[in-house]
Specification:
The complex is a heterodimer of chains A (193) and B (290).
Chain A lengths: L3 E2 L2 E2 L5 E2 L15 H22 L3 E3 L11 H4 E2 L4 E2 L2 H13 L3 E3 L7 E4 L4 H14 L6 E3 H5 L12 H13 L3 E6 L2 E6 L5
Antiparallel strand pairs in A: 2-3, 4-8, 5-6, 7-8, 9-11, 10-11
Helix pairs in contact in A: 4-6
Chain B lengths: L1 H34 L11 H47 L1 H6 L1 H13 L12 H7 L2 H17 L1 H4 L2 E3 H12 L8 H11 L7 E6 L2 E5 L7 H12 L3 E2 L1 H8 L3 H14 L4 E6 L3 E5 L5 E2 L2
Antiparallel strand pairs in B: 1-3, 2-3, 4-6, 5-6
Helix pairs in contact in B: 1-2, 1-4, 6-8, 6-9, 11-12
The chains are: A alpha+beta (193), B mainly alpha (290).
GO cellular component, one term (chain B): ESCRT II complex
Family (chain B): Belongs to the SNF8 family.
Protein name (chain B): EAP30/Vps36 family-domain-containing protein
């Protein structure tokens, strides 16, 4: 078997690193030092792919069969290898332990919310967007933030992550959660910063 | 062209040195020997006088001997000075070529080796390279870059890197403008790393392939064989290859592979191999294109 391990661009335009063409990369390694190297590569890959496709949720089911949003990285058809659900499960545990993901919903371990941006960064993005679009001091529903008529950096943001971002702003006095007719809303202030 | 001109020059330095050795010998060291001869003829005398004569002749011999050695040392010193002047003149006038042109550099190294001078050894730190060429830094720099590549790829290859790959990565690290680096340069530099006791060592895995080991780990014969097979297979080794090609038993093959995987971290496991279920991959033998 003569093969070159080359980087490869997926149909969605994502550049896979050359290690993704190495068959053993899809096997959980019994040697701890090797596994920690592989886990680092996988975590970087998962987060950068999530950012590339604006994916927020990763589930163990995503490794169970073809057809998931994650096929481009969890499978490599060129070498006929895939990440098995048990391996994805341990990668998810590493993501959570490094605070790069949180179990969502809580109290289960089969699905995570990915933090390819930390809540603090989402908070800044939210504040910048509200300021630029002249929506400070008005009440915004969560829906108006995550599904604005003009696409924004916050389009598609999952509510649990939005809530974390708003909490960050609340702590610095730049936001206030307000009950509205059909659920919750938020009022953003210019604040000191 | 350059190499030819260079070899011609090397020859002329050599012949010059040989000639000067001969002439100096006949003039300097022969004369004092003749002056001190008289006492030598009457060693066979008798009585007290003979005893004193013997004493005296012994003293003269001692004087002669020390004069002789002094003359020889002086002579050697002169020779060395002349040699160094010649080498320095040569090195200085060809300095740029030595730094820039690997072929020329190796011809120079070969010349130094043939006359028994190690360009890296010398009176000062950095040796002749440093003294004559300002190349001490160059060798140090290369050494540092080799260590850099070995250390930064260690977690991925378990401390074993193919020589060609190492040369390529060092070259990449240096950028284009600092000139071409060859395998010989790297081998030379690894030799200079040896006294540091960091365990840098060249391993010949057969088939013209060499690997550089940067961890203090003894490789046993079985591991050497596995590395050689891995090189031939683009990194992948399975039990069957070792059984069929090397006549190993399955037990021996499995034990050696598992040792390499678990004990030494020198290979990776692929549990989805189509034909064997379990394949071992030696990352230092895999062809990476990054």
């Amino acid at each position: 078997m003569q093969m070159e391990l080359t980087p490869n661009t997926t149909p969605s335009g994502f550049l896979l690193p050359s290690i993704h063409a190495a068959p053993p990369f899809f096997t959980e390694q019994p040697t701890p030092s090797t596994q920690s190297l592989f886990a680092d590569h996988w975590i970087r890959l998962i987060l950068s792919y999530a950012r590339h496709r604006r994916l927020f949720i990763l589930r163990i089911e995503d490794a169970e069969g073809p057809g998931s949003d994650w096929d481009e990285i969890l499978r490599n058809e060129r070498i006929n290898r895939r990440v098995l659900p048990s391996y994805l499960s341990s990668l998810i545990a590493v993501l959570v332990s490094k605070e790069l993901a949180v179990y969502e919903p809580a109290k289960q371990t089969r699905s995570v919310l990915l933090l390819w941006r930390q809540p603090e960064e989402w908070a800044e993005a939210l504040h910048v967007w509200a300021t630029a679009s002249g929506q400070l001091n008005t009440i915004l529903t969560f829906y108006e933030i995550t599904d604005p008529p003009i696409p924004s950096p916050l389009s598609g943001l999952p509510i649990p992550l939005l809530r974390k971002a708003i909490n960050v702003l609340t702590r610095s006095g730049r936001a206030q959660i307000i009950g509205v007719a059909d659920g919750e809303g938020v009022r953003l202030f210019s604040g000191t910063k | 062209m350059k190499v030819l001109a260079f070899d011609g020059y090397a020859c002329s330095i050599l012949s010059y040195l040989i000639l000067s050795t001969c002439t100096h010998h006949s003039v300097d060291s022969a004369t004092p020997a003749v002056r001190n001869i008289p006492a030598m003829h009457r060693l066979g005398g008798v009585g007290l006088a003979a005893f004193e004569r013997q004493q005296e002749s012994q003293r003269s011999f001692a004087t002669l001997s020390s004069e002789l050695s002094k003359a020889q040392v002086d002579h050697l010193q002169t020779q060395l000075t002349q040699f160094r002047t010649a080498l320095a003149r040569f090195a200085k006038s060809h300095r740029d070529s030595i730094r820039r042109d690997p072929t020329f550099r190796h011809a120079f190294q070969r010349m130094c080796a043939s006359i028994g001078v190690d360009p890296l050894a010398g009176p000062r730190q950095g040796g002749w390279w440093a003294e004559l060429l300002g190349m001490g830094d160059w060798q140090y720099e290369l050494g540092v870059q080799i260590v850099d590549v070995c250390v930064s790829t260690r977690e991925r290859n378990g401390g074993l890197i193919e020589l060609g790959e190492l040369v390529r990565m060092v070259g990449k690290l240096r950028g284009v403008e600092s000139g071409v680096i060859t395998e010989e340069d790297v081998v030379q530099s690894i030799k200079t790393l040896q006294p540091l006791g960091a365990g840098y060592q060249m391993i010949d895995v057969g088939g013209g392939k060499k690997m550089v080991r940067s961890v203090m780990k003894e490789l046993d014969d079985d591991q050497g064989v596995i590395l050689a097979e891995a090189q031939a297979e683009g990194g992948r080794v399975v039990e069957e290859i070792l059984v069929n090609r090397r006549g190993w038993t399955n037990e021996r093959a499995r034990a050696a592979l598992e040792n390499m995987l678990l004990r030494d971290g020198l290979c990776w496991l692929d549990a989805q191999d189509e034909r064997h279920g379990r394949a071992y991959w030696v990352p230092s033998a895999m062809r990476w294109d990054e």
